From TrEMBL:
Keywords: Ribonucleoprotein, Ribosomal protein, RNA-binding, rRNA-binding. PANTHER family: 50S RIBOSOMAL PROTEIN L4 (PTHR10746), LARGE RIBOSOMAL SUBUNIT PROTEIN UL4M (PTHR10746:SF6). Belongs to the universal ribosomal protein uL4 family. It comes from Candidatus Staskawiczbacteria bacterium RIFCSPHIGHO2_02_FULL_33_16. Part of the 50S ribosomal subunit. Residues 43-99 are annotated as: Disordered. Signal peptide: none annotated. This is Large ribosomal subunit protein uL4. One of the primary rRNA binding proteins, this protein initially binds near the 5'-end of the 23S rRNA. It is important during the early stages of 50S assembly. It makes multiple contacts with different domains of the 23S rRNA in the assembled 50S subunit and ribosome. Residues 59-76 have a biased composition (Basic residues). The keyword Membrane does not apply.
Length: 223
C-alpha cells in the first residue's frame, strides 16, 4: 500500500510504500477488543478500600458484661454492627484486575488497528517532524495545513524532545514515541500522524513480518 508523504508546509512531497505485514493485516474485531480490555484492565488502579474488624481501632475490651444489663450481648465494638466498627463485605485494595495477553496477540491487534487507519485514509505520513525549539504555536499552524481537519489526532515522534513539548498542550492531540504505540491510544484518536522515520521505528520495534508469520503458524497448529 502506498500513501502520500507530506512536508511540514502541508504539501505532498512524494509517496511511501507501507510495510505490508504491518499496514495490510485483516481486521479481527474480537481480538482487538480482547487486547483493548486487557490493556485498560492492567491500567486500573484499585483505590477503594475499607477496613475490616481486625483493622479498626478499639474493641480490646468487652463493652459490658454478658448478662444482667438487659442489653444485647456484645464482645467488641469493632463488630460490623457497631458505629465505627469494621466493614463487612466492603471493597478491598488487594483485588487484582490484570489480564495476561500473549505478546503475539497484542502485536497482531496493533497491526490490525494500524491497517484500519491506513485503509480508511486516517494515516498521515510526514517527511519529517523537526523543530528548533519548543513552540506550540508553530505546531498548531502546521496542523492546520495537514489533512487532519479539526478532529483528534495521535502524533508519533521519533525521540524529538522539542516536538514532544510543542505538541503536548494542543487540544485533541496526543503524542507518543513511535516505539510506545499501542491499541488503546490508537483507538482513542481518529487520525494517526507519523514520520517516515517513525514507521521504520515501528517496524524495527515490533518486527511485523516474523510476528505475523509465527502467529499464523501457531493458529494452524492448534487446528
Amino acid at each position: 500500500m502506498k500513501v502520500a508523504v507530506y512536508n511540514q508546509e502541508g504539501k505532498e512531497a512524494g509517496e511511501i510504500a507501507l510495510p505490508k505485514d504491518i499496514f495490510e493485516v485483516p481486521m479481527n474485531a474480537d481480538l482487538v477488543h480482547q487486547v483493548l480490555i486487557s490493556q485498560t484492565a492492567n491500567k486500573r488502579q484499585v483505590s477503594a478500600h475499607t477496613k475490616n474488624r481486625g483493622e479498626v481501632r478499639g474493641g480490646g475490651k468487652k463493652p459490658w458484661r454478658q448478662k444482667g444489663t438487659g442489653r444485647a450481648r456484645h464482645g467488641s465494638t469493632r463488630s460490623p454492627i457497631w458505629k465505627g466498627g469494621g466493614v463487612s463485605g466492603g471493597p478491598r485494595n488487594d483485588k487484582n484486575y490484570t489480564k495476561d495477553i500473549p505478546t503475539k496477540m497484542r502485536r497482531r491487534a496493533l497491526f490490525m488497528v494500524l491497517s484500519q487507519k491506513a485503509k480508511n485514509n486516517l494515516l498521515v505520513v510526514m517527511e519529517k517532524m523537526e523543530i528548533e525549539k519548543p513552540k506550540t504555536k508553530l505546531m498548531v499552524e502546521m496542523m492546520k495545513k495537514l489533512p487532519v481537519n479539526n478532529d483528534s489526532r495521535l502524533v508519533l515522534t521519533s525521540g524529538g524532545k522539542n516536538v514532544f513539548l510543542s505538541l503536548r498542550n494542543i487540544k485533541k492531540t496526543g503524542v507518543l514515541e513511535s516505539r510506545n504505540v499501542n491499541v488503546a491510544d490508537l483507538l482513542n484518536y481518529k487520525y494517526l500522524m507519523v514520520s517516515k522515520d517513525g514507521i521504520k521505528e515501528i517496524e524495527k520495534t515490533f518486527g511485523g513480518k516474523s510476528e505475523a508469520r509465527n502467529l499464523k503458524l501457531e493458529i494452524n497448529s492448534k487446528k
